Structure formats: structure tokens, C-alpha cells
């Protein structure tokens, strides 16, 4: 008898088939001697829309809400381009999966969707929607390498054991549907003028918006204050100089300039004594392994143009290509059972590095700790070494690989020196403090060439006399808080507003692992992207700022619980507790339904205020130039720049992702097309040869002699 394995995506199905040495590919599945491997495209099924339950609700009316279905039902997911139609690809694949499960020679079904709440729901909705009586099992993997696939298939679990994870996933899905559908509908009816666009309300959207709003307000309300500092330069008996800052009662910033002016006047013709000298050797541990939030924060902060959503997509691609472990994790350490696997990975990834002989495996508590792992271990490379990566994949892969290698190198060490210099005058109460630092052991800092600036102080002893050769009084202004970036926002979402400078704080780790957060590692990037897309926030450089609509929504929308980080954190914590069987799905949903019903009634009773006005002007279509075939205007389409006379048969088009240009790492741009249509030729700069060299060339787009199609022709510039 055969087992049908259902993966979340085609690329993962290919990985499983390769591990099982199955080469027989058919329409929608691979078939081998013992296993059939098929796939979904993420969610093949989605929850019913409101109008699917009741046609009378196709038009939003205030009296129709709150609406909470007696039984939640699923349908084939909608076509992304036309929400009114079924996605035909999803419908076809669903039929293939169901026909495979129904086969007489199939006795078991194995869900191999991602090991998280969402993956559980994707697999379970497909399998149980069929109401099959065949045995259902779960393949739980953290990576898709051949070794792990084969090991995982030897250790499959009955899917009934995953009921708590399924309950948590379904609870999240139904709760977000109920809150989103009901509150978005009534908020749009109450606070928006004009149709065609909704005023989005969501359980995770609003508290995230509030974090950005609060920071914007803090910056707007900030009142700068002047403060002053006093420094002095000292000379030792052997003519060495050093600088110190004046400190009194542990404070080096003074609001009153007169205090420092009096001290400065007293410094004339004075000597000073070294009253204390402290030398301390300090160890610097590498930052923890990456979880998804830390990886997103690191990449978006370091590289221009990256968003957390892009980081997740690239990490997902690396995961599906078997090069990294599961990326949607909240953990920054590894399970202790992964020691042997880690040794193998380390041996592979360190080969050929200039500091290879400095990398040594150790089973450290900072790396392996079961008590700090929730569902999935931290992100690390797999034992497979990539042969070719895109530039984006290389950036993310190298960050993960480097962070992994750092854990097994020598701890960096530096020496800190602190000198206290007291003026030999009883009227001056404070002391001048000088700090020095010298890097002694580079250790893990070699991996990313992290340079440490040395500040070297002269060799002095306690009770040495020194002379004052200069002093300086400087004025400063307090600075407002900084706007949130994706890095700082992700950190606050991960810890539900409990920010700490110390990344390794035990309290912070406990908060993350308890599930007390805004969203999950898998959804945070999507939330930030959605806030941008719907116009509640905007981006300036890397800074996230509230738009006028976002500000109005926070200040007007009456359901204040949805802006409250504690409220949202408790909901997310409850979902985590459902998975741990500390809370029931029904109790959670009853609370959500009650909250939604009360919220709808409250909005209905509020005063009518227009937060947003939707105007539907006709979109202007820009003509880029004349079609060389028929003379009509060439306009931009979704996949290319084509003739506007296409309805009458003109087939002229310049594809955006043209294969010839793509081979030289270029895409067709609007500017290129305009110049080409005007002059017949366009200079394209920064093309890349097969050897990786950059060059410029003149390009023409010429019709083939034997057919109606056009091709690029290249002429080299002198």
C-alpha cells in the first residue's frame, strides 16, 4: 500500500521526492514505490466570505453586523486578480490531492506542511475537508535536507497528537476573521465616505500602528534642553597626555553652566592627583543565533532597500532550497538533541575559511538549551553548501552562516582602564574620569571584520601627580527619541513593548518564549507591509511614520483595547497556551465573539466622523511613445510595455523580464522604453557579462525578418 505525502509547496515536494529517490513526475505529484508526494500552494482553501453565508450581505449594511457564523466553512481560495472567482490552479491541485487520497492502493496520508500553526491548518483543512477515514500522520521537520527527510519519515506522528496545534491555528484564523470582517465593515461604514476601499481593522494591525504613533507623538512633543560638559587635558611626568570628563555625583551633564564656569576658573595654575585606577579584563560573547525577528532587524538595518517582508521571502527561499533550517522561529538557541547535527554542519561550513583553525565545536549553554527553545530551534545553515545563490540569497545566507560560526570561535576579550583624576583643590568636589579600551583577543569578531577602536591611556599609578594643560567647556542639546525602523519595531512586537537594550536579558527571553507578543515571527513582516500598503504608515529613509489617516484612526477609533499592547499580548499568549493545552479553543473563541459583539455595538453608538474620503478619479494612462508597428501609443502593462491597439491585433510588446536582458542581470524600465521609442536606440549601463564583469551597450529592438516578433540587438559603446 502507498502513503500520500502532502507538502506545503511544490519546491518542498521536490525535496522530499529527491530524498526518496522518486523520479516519476506526473501532473501535480511524484509517484514512487511506497510514497506519492504531492503539494499545495500554501492555502488551497480559505474561509467563506460573509456573502457566501448570506447573499443579502453582499452589500454592507450596519444592521447586518455583528455577523458570527454558527459553523465556519471553507471554499477554494479566490483568484488573487479577481476575488469573485475561484483560483483555478488551486481548484485543480485540490482535485488531484483528493483523487490521490481516494485511491484504493493508498491507506495513509502524511501532512508534511511546515511545523507551525499555519502549516498545521493548511494541511488539516485540505485533508479533513475531504472527510477521509484513512490514517493521517504528521511529518515534523525543521529542514528539508535528504538526511532529515528520511529520518523524519521514520518518526512520523499520528496527526491526532497535533490537535492542540490545530486548535491554536484554527482559533487564530477564526478570531482574525471575526474581528477583521466585523470591525472593518462597521468602521468603514461609520468613518469613511466613498466606496471601493475598506478602512482596515485588525487584531495585530492596530497595536503595531499604535507603537509607531506613540513614538511619533513623543518626538512631536519633545522639548529640547541645553546641557553642558567640562573636559580637561592632563600631562604626566613623562610628557604623556590624556583627557578626562568632569563628573560630580555620577553625573557628567550639567544643566547649570555657572557651576562648570566656576570650576573652570579654578583650574588655572592647579595640579592634580591620580586618586584611582581600575583595570578590568572583559569578555565579549558573540550575539545569539538568529531567530526570524533578529535576522530581519539585522538585515534591514545593515542593507539599504530591504524590508522585513523581503528578508522573510529570501529566508523562505533558502529554506525550501535546503540551505537553512526553518526560518519562522522565535528561538535564539538550539535543542540539545541537535549537537551531532551541529558538529556535521560546522565541519562543512568552516572549510576553506582563513580562520578555519580558530573554529572549534563546544557544547555551550549559550547555544544548546532546551529550556529556551519553543517549537523550533534558532536559524542555522544545513550541511548542504550552496553552489549558486542570488545576491539577495547570499546576503541572508552569509548573515546566518557567520552568526553560526561565531558561536564556535574564541570569546573576544578587551581590557578596560578607568582613571580618576582629582584636582588638588578642596573647592572642586568632583573628579575627572578617563576611560581607555584595548582589544586583546579578536575572537569571533574576525568573522565579520568587526573593528574595535582602541583608546589607549598612558601608564600611570595611584598618587601620581599630573599637570593641567588645557580645559574646555562645551554646550549640547538633548535629542528627541528616534523614529522607529523595522528593526526597532520588530523588537517591540516580539516582546509586546517590553524593550531592553540587553538582547540577552532573561526576562526578555522568557517573554518571547511564553508567546506574549504582537503577532508571530511568521506574521510580523506581513503586518508591517500591510500597514504601508493600506496607507496607515509611510517610510522615509528607514524610518516608519504614521500618515494622517493612521493618526486619525488611532485618535478616533473607539475600541481602545485593539491599540493596547497588553490586550494583544494576552490574546497571542492565549493562542500559545491553547497549543500547550492550558486553555481551550472554545473558551478563547467565546471571548473573541463576545468582544467583537460589544465592539460593533460601541462603534454603532459613536458619533459619525469622516476619517477618510475615497475619491474614484479615472486613472491617467501614460503614453510612452509610438508603436513602431502601427503608430498607436505604447503603454505600461503588468508584464510588459505594449501597444494600446492590442485589441485590434497589434502584438508589439517589450517584456519587463526579457530573458536576453535578464541573462545580463537587467530588467526593462519605463525610462529605457521611452528613450528607445523616441530614438530607436537606448544606452543601457551596468550590464553584467557571464564572467561577472560590468559593461555598457547600445541596444536596439528590431523586428525579426521571418516573423512578427522583435528581439534585442546589442552594439558596444566606444
What does this structure look like?
By secondary structure, the protein is an alpha+beta fold. It has five domains: 2-155, 3-Layer(aba) Sandwich (Rossmann fold), CATH 3.40.50.140; 172-220 and 523-613, Topoisomerase I, domain 2; 226-285 and 412-477, Topoisomerase I, domain 3, CATH 2.70.20.10; 292-406, Topoisomerase I, domain 4 (Orthogonal Bundle), CATH 1.10.290; 623-716, no CATH class. The protein is 34% helix and 22% strand. It is built from 20 helices and 28 strands. Strand 9, helix 4 and strand 10 form a beta-alpha-beta unit. Helix 1 (10-19) crosses helix 5, helix 6 (163-191) runs parallel beside helix 18 (585-605) and helix 10 packs across helix 12 (391-406). 36% of the residues are buried. The model has no long low-confidence stretch (mean pLDDT 92).
Can you lay out the helices and strands and say which pair or pack?
Layout: E1 2-7, H1 10-19, E2 25-26, E3 29-31, E4 35-39, E5 45-47, H2 50-53, E6 74-76, E7 78-79, E8 82-86, H3 88-102, E9 106-112, H4 117-129, E10 135-138, H5 146-153, E11 157-158, H6 163-191, E12 192-193, H7 205-220, E13 226-235, E14 241-247, H8 257-266, E15 271-284, H9 292-302, H10 308-320, H11 339-349, H12 391-406, E16 412-423, E17 431-441, E18 465-477, H13 486-494, H14 506-514, H15 524-533, E19 537-540, E20 543-546, H16 548-556, H17 565-579, H18 585-605, E21 612-613, E22 623-626, E23 633-636, E24 640-643, E25 653-655, H19 659-662, H20 670-679, E26 682-688, E27 694-703, E28 710-716
Helix pairs in contact: 1-5, 4-6, 6-17, 6-18, 9-10, 9-13, 10-12, 10-15
Amino acid at each position: 500500500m502507498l502513503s500520500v505525502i502532502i507538502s506545503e509547496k511544490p519546491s518542498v515536494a521536490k525535496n522530499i521526492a529527491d530524498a526518496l529517490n522518486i523520479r516519476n513526475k506526473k501532473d501535480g505529484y511524484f509517484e514512487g514505490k511506497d510514497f506519492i508526494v504531492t503539494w499545495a500552494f500554501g492555502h488551497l482553501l480559505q474561509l467563506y466570505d460573509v456573502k457566501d453565508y448570506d447573499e443579502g450581505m453582499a452589500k454592507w449594511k450596519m444592521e447586518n453586523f455583528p455577523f458570527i457564523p454558527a459553523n465556519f466553512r471553507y471554499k477554494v481560495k479566490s483568484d488573487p486578480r479577481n476575488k469573485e472567482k475561484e483560483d483555478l490552479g488551486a481548484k485543480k491541485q485540490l482535485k488531484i490531492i483528493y483523487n490521490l487520497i481516494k485511491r484504493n492502493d493508498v491507506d495513509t496520508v502524511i501532512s508534511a506542511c511546515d511545523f507551525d500553526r499555519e502549516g498545521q491548518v493548511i494541511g488539516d483543512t485540505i485533508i479533513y475537508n475531504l472527510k477521509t477515514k484513512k490514517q493521517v500522520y504528521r511529518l515534523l521537520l525543521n529542514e528539508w535536507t535528504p538526511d532529515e527527510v528520511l529520518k523524519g519519515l521514520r518518526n512520523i506522528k499520528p496527526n491526532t497528537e497535533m490537535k492542540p496545534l490545530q486548535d491554536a491555528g484554527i482559533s487564530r484564523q477564526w478570531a482574525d476573521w471575526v474581528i477583521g470582517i466585523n470591525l472593518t465593515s462597521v468602521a468603514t461604514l461609520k468613518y469613511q465616505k466613498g466606496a471601493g476601499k475598506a478602512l482596515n481593522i485588525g487584531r495585530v494591525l492596530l497595536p503595531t500602528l499604535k507603537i509607531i504613533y506613540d513614538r511619533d507623538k513623543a518626538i512631536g512633543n519633545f522639548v529640547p534642553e541645553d546641557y553642558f560638559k567640562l573636559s580637561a587635558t592632563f600631562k604626566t611626568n613623562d610628557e604623556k597626555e590624556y583627557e578626562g570628563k568632569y563628573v560630580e555625583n555620577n553625573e557628567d551633564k550639567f544643566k547649570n553652566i555657572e557651576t562648570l564656569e566656576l570650576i573652570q576658573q579654578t583650574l588655572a595654575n592647579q595640579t592634580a592627583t591620580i586618586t584611582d585606577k581600575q583595570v578590568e579584563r572583559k569578555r565579549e560573547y558573540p550575539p545569539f543565533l538568529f531567530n526570524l525577528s533578529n535576522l530581519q532587524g539585522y538585515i534591514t538595518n545593515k542593507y539599504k532597500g530591504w524590508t522585513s517582508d523581503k528578508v522573510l521571502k529570501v529566508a523562505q527561499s533558502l529554506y525550501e532550497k535546503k540551505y537553512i533550517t526553518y526560518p519562522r522561529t522565535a528561538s535564539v538557541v538550539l535543542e540539545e538533541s541537535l549537537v551531532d547535527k551541529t558538529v556535521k554542519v560546522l565541519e562543512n561550513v568552516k572549510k576553506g575559511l582563513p580562520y578555519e583553525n580558530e573554529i572549534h565545536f563546544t557544547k555551550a549553554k549559550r547555544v544548546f538549551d532546551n529550556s529556551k527553545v519553543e517549537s523550533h530551534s534558532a536559524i542555522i545553515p544545513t550541511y548542504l553548501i550552496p553552489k549558486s545563490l542570488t545576491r539577495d540569497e547570499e546576503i541572508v545566507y552569509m548573515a546566518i552562516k557567520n552568526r553560526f560560526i561565531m558561536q564556535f570561535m574564541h570569546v573576544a576579550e578587551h581590557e578596560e582602564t578607568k582613571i580618576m583624576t582629582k584636582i588638588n583643590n578642596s573647592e572642586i568636589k568632583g573628579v575627572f574620569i578617563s576611560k581607555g579600551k584595548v582589544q586583546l583577543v579578536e575572537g569571533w569578531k574576525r568573522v565579520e571584520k568587526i573593528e574595535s577602536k582602541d583608546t589607549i591611556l598612558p601608564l600611570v599609578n595611584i598618587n601620581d601627580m599630573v599637570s593641567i594643560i588645557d580645559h574646555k567647556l562645551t554646550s549640547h542639546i538633548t535629542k528627541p527619541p528616534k523614529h522607529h525602523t523595522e528593526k526597532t519595531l520588530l523588537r517591540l512586537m516580539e516582546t509586546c513593548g517590553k524593550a531592553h537594550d540587553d538582547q540577552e536579558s532573561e526576562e526578555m527571553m522568557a517573554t518571547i518564549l511564553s508567546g506574549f507578543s504582537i503577532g508571530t515571527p511568521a506574521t510580523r513582516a506581513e503586518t508591517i507591509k500591510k500597514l504601508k500598503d493600506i496607507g496607515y504608515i509611510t517610510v522615509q529613509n528607514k524610518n516608519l511614520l504614521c500618515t494622517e489617516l493612521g493618526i486619525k484612526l488611532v485618535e478616533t477609533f473607539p475600541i481602545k483595547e485593539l491599540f493596547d499592547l497588553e490586550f494583544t499580548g494576552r490574546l497571542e499568549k492565549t493562542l500559545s497556551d491553547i497549543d500547550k493545552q492550558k486553555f481551550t479553543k472554545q473558551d478563547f473563541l467565546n471571548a473573541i465573539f463576545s468582544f467583537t459583539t460589544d465592539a460593533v455595538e460601541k462603534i454603532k453608538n459613536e458619533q459619525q466622523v469622516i476619517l477618510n474620503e475615497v475619491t474614484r478619479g479615472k486613472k491617467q494612462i501614460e503614453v510612452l511613445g509610438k508603436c513602431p508597428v502601427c503608430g498607436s501609443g505604447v503603454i505600461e502593462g503588468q508584464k510588459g510595455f505594449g501597444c494600446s491597439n492590442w485589441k485590434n491585433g497589434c502584438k508589439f510588446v517589450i517584456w519587463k523580464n526579457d530573458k536576453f536582458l535578464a541573462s545580463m542581470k537587467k530588467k526593462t524600465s519605463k525610462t529605457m522604453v521611452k528613450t528607445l521609442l523616441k530614438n530607436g536606440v537606448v544606452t543601457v549601463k551596468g550590464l553584467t557579462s557571464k564572467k561577472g564583469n560590468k559593461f555598457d551597450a547600445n541596444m536596439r529592438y528590431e523586428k525579426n525578418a521571418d516573423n512578427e516578433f522583435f528581439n534585442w540587438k546589442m552594439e558596444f559603446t566606444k
